[in-house]
Amino acid sequence: MPDADALITAAVAAVRGTDVRDAERKLDRLVVGGDGGRPTPDGPATVDAALLGRLVAALGRLWPRGWQPADVARIVTRRLGARPGRLVAEALAADRAAQPGPVPPWWDDQLAGLDARVHGDDDAGWLSGWTTREGTDRITALRDAIEVLALLAGLPPVAVLRPPPGGVGGPATTAPGGPSGSRVLDRVRALLAKAESTTFPAEAEAFTGKAQELIARHSLERALVEATAAHPDRPGGVRISTDAPYAGAKALLVQEVAAANRCESVWSDDLGFATVLGFPADLEAVELLHTSLLVQATAAMLRGRRERQGGGRRTKAYDEAFLHAFARRIGERLRTATDEANRQAAEAAGPERLLPVLAARSGAVRERMDTLFPGVTRARLTVRDAEGWQSGTSAADRALLAGTAPPTRSLPGRR
Question: Where does the DUF7168 domain lie (predicted)?
């Protein structure tokens, strides 16, 4: 009779193949932990322990290939669903418990964000415990575990943004912002939360404008401090989800916000994320602004739908055009704010001091970009709804900068 590992190997191969009936047969054998109608008394427990070992081993092979816990959970949820996403979170907790050495704080932060924790089950009982917590049956749990294994086995390497536990490959960077930066960013978060919650565009404009002002000032102050530090920050990276619907528009928003904050962005459409490269304080600013602006853009798009002729009628072309236009105009306004902050900082610190610092940081980010993504290409996004474009542009004007009159312009050429 095949052992548990052989049964798992056969089931994974069958799930990755095209013969659905063969895959079901292999899963049936896993259910009883034996061959056909000849189960063994300890078969299920043996299978469960072997499954957990295989999942932990599969995760361990991904870490040197650039994947991080949040990336794995995101792509499993995206491709297989929420329940397999929760299963892989339990496997991530088991992987963490098996780490032989120290683990960087950012790794544990990601696990905490996924609620990845060990529940006290031993290896032989972990799947039974998970099945009970999920309120599902054993065959569903086994199918989820095998499908997760099959997915993990087929994931390609991605850019190594930070060294994994016990590994090398990415630049060692300090925590974004540092202690003083945390106070600034707490104020930014509070302002953006107010911008998202208000139903009055003028208030959202004022709150978001103030947040951008604080971000720009903090970034420049940080750059000047780091220029003379004994161990200055180095460019790092983060990945931001760009899942459907309207993945292209979400990726464009990431790109525009990144560019305005001296970062570079590369979209991996097939993997459902954009990679943003930059210095730590700028990366955190991009994440904060992008999250808030996406909330504001979505709310404005829904209001735009209701205001259209026909009430809340939804069309994909309108929504895409709206979000594309919102992203493009937001980028323009953010870059204007950054340029103004640069001008004021240069007057205060002296252009001979500030401009070389900014040029050196931009060059370092570009060098990191060229190293990690040497074959990157540019793509054109298509806009098919003029009304959506105009509405998105107007919404972006309302969402951003306090005290700045929005420029007037005609509908740009479709991209």
Answer: 251-353
CA dist 371 and 86 (Å) reads 34
Question: For the stretch 22-57, what's the b/e string if a residue is b when 16 or more beta carbons lie within 10 angstroms of its beta carbon?
Answer: ebeebbebbbbbbeeeeeeeebbbbbbbbbbbbbbe
- Count how many domains the chain has: 2
How far, in Å, CA of 77 to CA of 66, rounded? 19
The beta strands (E) that lie in 259-365 are given as 264-268, 273-278
Per-residue pLDDT of the chain (415 residues; tens, 9 = 90+): 468 888 898 889 888 887 788 888 888 888 766 555 455 556 788 888 999 999 999 999 999 999 999 999 999 999 999 999 999 999 999 999 999 888 999 999 999 999 998 887 788 889 989 999 999 999 999 999 999 999 999 999 999 999 998 765 555 554 444 444 578 888 899 999 988 888 776 677 678 777 877 888 888 888 888 888 877 888 999 999 998 889 999 999 999 999 999 999 999 999 999 999 999 989 999 999 999 999 988 888 887 777 765 555 567 888 888 888 888 888 888 888 888 888 888 888 888 888 899 999 999 999 999 999 987 776 665 555 555 556 656 666 655 443 343 433 333 333 3
Could you give phi then psi for residue 22, rounded to 5 degrees? Answer: -65, -40
- Looking at the structure, do residues 301 and 249 belong to the same domain, yes or no? yes
User: What is the value of pTM for the model shown?
Assistant: 0.82
Q: Are residues 249 and 323 in the same domain?
A: yes
Give the closest residue to 268 by CA, choosing from 104, 66, 103, 21: 66
Which of 301, 306, 258 is CA-nearest to residue 390?
A: 301
The CA–CA distances, whole Å, from 325 to 46, 172, 175, 296 equal 56, 37, 33, 13
Burial of 186 (0-12, 13-18, 19+ CB in 10 A): exposed
Q: Which residues constitute the domain of residue 276?
A: 181-399
Same domain? 132 vs 253: no
